[in-house]
Design brief:
Number of helices: 12
Oligomer: single chain
Radius of gyration: 21 Å
Strand order of the largest sheet: 1-2
Distance between the termini: 13 Å
Number of strands: 2
Length: about 325
Amino acid sequence: MASKDLERGGTNNRGLNNSSFYVEKSEYQWTSWLIPMFVVANIAVFIVVMFVNNCPKNHSAFGGECVAKFLGRLSFQPLKENPLFGPSSSTLQKLGALQWDKVVHQKEGWRLVTCMWLHAGVIHLFANMLSLVFIGIRLEQQFGFVKVGMVYLLSGFGGSILSALFIQQNISVGASGALFGLLGAMLSELITNWTLYANKAAALFTLVIIIAINLALGILPHVDNFAHIGGFLTGFFLGFILLVRPQFGWLERRHLPAEARTKSKYKAYQFILWVVALTLLVLGFVVGLIMLFRGENGNKHCSWCHYLSCVPTSKWKCDN
């Protein structure tokens, strides 16, 4: 598995609490239910994948023994095949992993969506779901399930498009394109609502460091950093579009005298960012999908881009 699969790693977000920097407290706080449902759905899908995998029946005796045999058909593939305690590559491929050849030549475009619900193993699943809980619940409480759900799903889709354009020999699975989309949305939300925050520098510094660390981890081998980057850029643009807040004082305008009321709900720069982000997002999706289904190889248009996903060192190679 280590030589064929690319798992989309989780994100590290300790110490980040976006709401602690926001100063206007009169906004409605949503109850988070969609993000917990996403977590349950991902866990349920993983159980189904392991049930279908059925290691005791399907694994080759030459690859070693199944791990955790007491789980029966839910036991894991031998660690030599999958060190993340999960299914085989063939099972993931059969159940919807992202694979360029099948998307382009067999017209299985649905894999651009299904891959984000699959995980390479228990470790991969745990890291992503922990990150989703820390990042997603706070965002859903602030902006509601519709907006956060759109950011999550569209970011996962955007990550899959970029991944398929640049990684064409291996399969890829994982929800971290969607997770990086949530991080990107948090960054653009901070930028577009800049005047509403106290401690702006601290908020921006914390968020940028977290994003940089997680993207840097993506240069390790067998991690699909293109899914991370594609998801991050999608979420970044969506944050300008979906997570814009009214300027300070708008929510309290009814309690103020007429001459002191804010005339416009949003500032001019927020409108400009909204238009630019929407234009770039639509353009990116259109161009990306056209290139993908034409069978284009992104590496031919960018000779150095492969270093964004894996940087060779004396400890590992990036041949695949």
